[in-house]
Design goal:
three-stranded antiparallel sheet, 10% strand
Length: 482
Amino acid sequence: MLSLVSTAVIVCGIYTLFYVVRRFNSWWYEPTLKNGKAPLPPGDMGWPLLGNMLSFLRDFKSTNPEAFISSFVSRFNRVGVYKAFMFGNPTILATTPEACRRVLMDDANFIPGWPKSTVKLMGSKSFVGISQEEHKRLRKLTAAPLNGPEALSKYMNWIEERVVSALENWSKMDQIDLLTELRRLTFNIIGYIFIRYDPNAIGALEREYGVLNLGVRAMAINLPGTAFNKALKARRNLKAILQSVIDKRRSGQEKNDDNNGDMLDSLLQVKDENGRFLTDEEIIDLLIMYLNAGHESSAHITMWTVIFLLKHPEIYAKAKAEQENIVKRRIERQRHMRFSELREMHYLRKVLDESLRLVNISPMVFREAVDDVEFNGFTIPKGWKTQVWLRNVHLDPHVYHDPMKFDPERWNNFVPRAGMFIPFGGGSRECPGNELAKMEISVFFHYMLLHYEVERLTPDCQLRYLPHPRPIDNCPVRIRKL
């Protein structure tokens, strides 16, 4: 009898301890809401300190990353917002178009809320770390030099030249790792556009960015050997390189060999309505951010679009026919692409949009509530982080029919409502380089579809989803010139 009582006490003790531990984050972080306030969203705040990160990492290292959000939906219904504990902070997960639109568009109540690791690595003066007012100022100053039609037209010839050269070189090799080579190509392009960096030295710069990118979404644990610690060292190296380039440009030691200038020239010369120029710190943080985002996303989307086209020969044939028709309409003496031809690539744009929807290079973006916000009958508390789950919206069967199917035709006469298609974020903080990225990718596919045949050598390779979705072998292919 005594042993049964002892066993019962032990079992009850273990159950009580388990309950207390599982409820700790809720007790510690959840605010006491005033009478009349809507309740917090339903959810699960995980374990103390770790929160939901273990289940997030488990699901994103599995073959089914959708299981992470699906577990919230199955337990708490499809309410659009859920409470969680992510990257060391109490967090609201926004998972429907309506919730994402509210968070992305409401600048009065939501500011950037990126993890500490991201802000430290991209820089406090980059777009991920500055105030809304400062963001408006920098966005206005950098919009035309980056995404304006005149700037894009100026960059197009350089992009075309590098794409043609890369494809020619790849076709002479027995095989290449497509993602690896695309990273080199896109970094070469973006490095030249922004700082006219020596192509012979670009490899060293690219390697530093590779280390930096691995730490961007890691937990901010600065211990030797961690991804964040290595990334901090890479940032210091990048900062020193970029400062040297700026110093030479300011002193006149380094001048461009043409009259077009680059993005750095524009950043050094631009000033706001008060006559204020950008500081070196602002320029360096902007360059670190732009150079990182400008090559990683373009390389991954290009690789995935190649994979999708190879899986769907009928789609490949339509995309190729469109490029052939563009060439047929050219005048006899035209040997290069014209900027206006990009607007004729209607089917290719649908292919790229479908790739962006299905791949989701970044699964979420980060915001923070600056006041209590009521949404859909729930309160998003002041000071809590808010994750906008792009991946869940793009793969939600309530939003897209048969969402796991690669189907460019779904974009025929379809204009998504705000919050339904957000691969570059949305609102005032939408990715500022999206048009440059789309142009770069379009130029690549123009020449690839017209002049080359691609064979994927390991079509059944397993996938990895962090920090970006990719085949674990970086997609080896064989490229033949037609």
